[in-house]
DNA sequence: ACAATTTGACCGGA
DNA sequence: TCCGGTCAAATTGT
């Protein structure tokens, strides 16, 4: 219960920071020089991301501590290897046996997907695996946050090249960054025109999200996603589905901001800013999102 | 020397 | 048993 209070406080903090960022970005519209503004915005973004990540990880740790849990010392004893074992490519049986049950497969919660022209997203990722996927032309690459050890950050990323002939990547994010220094490695807000969104003078370009991005929450197999449909409809103002609150929480805030900005740049008739404003101004929606989080983790 | 990546084996859910 | 996610030794890069 005390945790819930802390969680709410944390999320409210995040909302307040987002309000500040919003007014900052609005102020930016009236300014031509945006260097100091973008620095401020970057700091605010860090605060926001920290608040949301903190709240989410609080919830994760209290409700389902094992979701992302890895055992502290999963590895078998390699010191006892005989010289023969050490030189053969094969691992000794004892080592293999001690690895049994050494990790738990994560559930497919706290994930969201997006399509992007680049794998670069401002976070520092380290590749830890690659797999050929059945019936897929391209392998899937597995990344974890570089700060997994330093800060215990449990964020994971899966990247697979799309088979539709484009050079887009299908990126799945699992978990949230809890490392504190995320945006200093490339998530920089600048407000120069992006070639693909030249209509908007206030486009955040250095977060790698393309205007065609459409993100979805995926928490069950039944919610299969036709990526190509989503990409095509993302630029269709009439079919563009409203962002939902679970998307707000499941996605990273950079994507959220890009999406809002993107729809703005597409001069959609329905003000997508409304969704952000709703979140910023409506305490009921905050409670609603908390309820959603509670359910999704239960 | 240390960090990052590659790659084949292991693991568990379906 | 299959398939995809993860581990960790070996290899490569800085």
Automatic annotation (TrEMBL):
InterPro entries: WRKY_dom, WRKY_dom_sf, WRKY_plant
Molecular functions (GO terms): DNA-binding transcription factor activity; sequence-specific DNA binding
GO cellular component, one term: nucleus
Keyword Transcription regulation attached: yes
Pfam families for the chain: WRKY (PF03106)
Chief site of localization: nucleus
The WRKY domain, residue ranges: 119-182
Protein name: WRKY domain-containing protein
